[in-house]
Amino acid sequence: MNNSHKIYTKSFIFFAIISSLFFSSYQVKASGIESAQVAKELMPYASKIVATTGKTGLNIVKDTLGVLWLPVGALQTTVGAPFGFFKKGVGNIGSGIAAPFKVAKHVVLYPFDVMKCFGK
């Protein structure tokens, strides 16, 4: 281990300890009645949020697995070219290259999708 790695590790551990001490001392002071009222007001939005979260989560998983089309396409363009798989392989390579960008799009737009649930 070089010195810079040790410094980063020590800095991370220090930050983790300080932040855990800070956030563990914070308490929300609300009674049970207030909490129940807030939960009652947010109940109509809960099903929308769950549906949106599930849909976005499935899209993220689908596009993450879409990265696997890249090696499939590489095999199709090289080994499968004599058997007529070259054109499909090029398409699969394109799908595999585009997949990480689709994942990034879903992750960036996720908070906005959840906030749309609170709109009229």
Give the number of helices: 4
Radius of gyration: 24 Å
Low-confidence stretches: none
Sequence of secondary-structure elements:
HHHH
Q: Give the overall shape, derived from the CA principal axes.
A: flat
Secondary-structure-derived class:
mainly alpha
Could you estimate the helical fraction of the residues in percent? over 70%
Biggest β-sheet strands, sense, barrel: none
Q: Can you walk through the features of this model?
A:
This protein has 120 residues and is mainly α. It has one domain. Helix content is 81%, strand content 0%. It has four helices and no strands. It has helices at residues 3-24, 32-65, 69-78, 86-116. Helix 2 packs antiparallel against helix 4 and helix 3 packs antiparallel against helix 4 (86-116). It is flat and about 70 Å long. The mean pLDDT is 83.
Keywords:
flat, mainly alpha, 120 residues, 4 helices
Summary?
The chain has 120 residues and is mainly alpha-helical. Helices cover 81% and strands 0% of the residues. Helix 2 packs antiparallel against helix 4 (86-116).
Fold topology:
Blueprint: H1 3-24, H2 32-65, H3 69-78, H4 86-116
Helix pairs in contact: 2-4, 3-4
